[in-house]
Amino acid sequence: MNSFQMAWRSVIRKPVKSILLFFVVFMISLFFLSGMASRNASIATQNKTKQAVGAGFVIEANEANKRNRADKILAKKTEGEEGNFDGVNVEKIETNYGTSWRVSYDNSFQTVLINDMEKIAAVSGISEYNITTAVTAVNPVDFSRIEDDDVDQSSDLLCVSLIGNKDMALDANVLSGNVTIKDGRMITEGDVDVCVISEELAEKNNLSVGNRIQFNDRRNVENGTVFGAEIVGIYRVQQKMMPVMAGDTYRSENIIFTDLGFPEKAEGSTSGALYEKAYFKVADVNQYDEIKKEIQKVDIGWERYDLIDNNGNINKMSQNFNDLENVSQILVIVVAGASLIILFLVFVFWMKGRVQEIGILLALGTPKIKIFGQILLEASMIAAAALFLSFAAAPAASDITADYLVQQQVQKATEQSVLEEGKVAKNAVDSEETVTGVSVAVTPELMLYDWFGVALLVVISVGAAGILTARKNPKDIFSEIS
């Protein structure tokens, strides 16, 4: 009788112990796979403030990633140190309530990277693309902005807002049909120092196509360099554009579209431009899903971005959704630690039930390594069956686990928002995201990791439990039985 036959007979001879080990290994494998799969979960969210993006894709910088990168940078600085650290500004502020710290980012730290966007634009099936700057507040030099006479302006920046575009026709406001040209034309690629203003702003200042208006840095109104832009178009809106922050600076009538490079100059930026998003137009809508897959294969740092499709859905890796990756990592570690303890106790139970058999084999001169090798073979046969069954159940279990973890993150964010209500500055209208779906993929790679991890736990547990028995000789074992 060979080793496998002996192992199989031993497994079926004690079904209760075998079923116990099977169940334990099955649950361990399932938790391992669920934890690892949740780290790479794709989370579809619906952002209610997103405007339609047409048959195309939008790339935006991911806020969670910016915070993570900033935390890593700040962790390296000396406590109490002020200054600029790789694009993260730290400033000490003395108030009546004591010392506080202000953290802000340079444009270079938080911008969407042009090189990355050019790589995506090169994907086959992308016909056109646009890059849009963040809304930039600048001081109007030779014209008046639109203001609400009944509102106290002392807390406002007293500025107008610039939005730079590589191609204005692909701006989200234009794609949605909300912004249309009343007079003149839109800004196109290659334009320099040009702008398109609202019909309200044009009427208030008696401006028309061909006139020039000027701006400078709002932080240095008196001495900041003045930059002029030629008006090439006047626009009107169907509905007022959503302000990014409260105040007349950001109201719809005071938004001025410019060429891509102008906001950086007018703002007086010393850290480059702040590109907020990029839009990629699909040539053939019938190839939409295929093009999306090709975009996701582009070799860029995807952790920096959110990919938004034409339904306003955002596909985020787990790292990009708050702390889901960290939570999943902790789950895997906790499962590994608990599994090792549980498996050790199971095999101690096994050894105690077979102590007489082990004593007889030792008395007959059977090497200890062979005895425990036989026990390991039995455990491996049971574990293998449990692993295969767990692979079949893993997709459903992983979906449930990832969905639960995501909902916990949503609840945590909601509770944090309530705690911060009235304590922190927010946009005029908060960006409200609702999770519409969570999907995970249990890949062959994850199965391989799971198999290796479970096998390692079984080997360690059998070895640790076997040491307790291996230290005894046959005489000691039989005396314990008596």
Write up this protein.
The protein has a seven-stranded antiparallel β-sheet with strand order 6-14-2-15-16-1-17. The protein has a six-stranded mixed β-barrel with strand order 7-8-13-10-12-11. Strands 3-4-5 form a three-stranded antiparallel β-sheet. Strand 15 and strand 16 (about 315) form a beta hairpin. Helices cover about 45% and strands about 20% of the residues. Mean pLDDT is about 80; it is low at about 45-50, about 315-320 and about 415-430. It has 14 helices and 17 strands. It starts with a helix and ends with a helix. It has about 475 residues and is of the alpha+beta class. The protein folds into three domains: about 5-40 and about 325-415 and about 425-480, no CATH class; about 65-105, no CATH class; about 110-315, no CATH class. One of its GO terms (molecular function) is transmembrane transporter activity. It is found in: Cell membrane. InterPro entries: ABC3_permease_C, MacB_PCD, Macrolide_Exporter_MacB.
Keywords:
3 domains; 482 residues; cell membrane; elongated; 6-stranded mixed beta barrel; Macrolide_Exporter_MacB; 7-stranded antiparallel β-sheet; MacB_PCD; alpha+beta
Shape: elongated
Helix percentage range: 40-55%
> Structural class per helix/strand content?
alpha+beta
Give the biggest beta sheet.
7 strands, antiparallel
Strand arrangement across the biggest beta sheet: 6-14-2-15-16-1-17
DSSP summary, beta strand count? 17
Cα-to-Cα separation, first versus last residue: 30 Å
How large is the radius of gyration?
32 Å
The overall number of domains is: 3
The total count of helices amounts to 14
| Strand residues, percent | 15-25%
Mean pLDDT: 80
Give the uncertain stretches in residue-range form: 43-52, 316-320, 417-432
Domain MacB-like periplasmic core: 110-297
InterPro entries: ABC3_permease_C, MacB_PCD, Macrolide_Exporter_MacB
Protein name: FtsX-like permease family protein
Subcellular location: Cell membrane
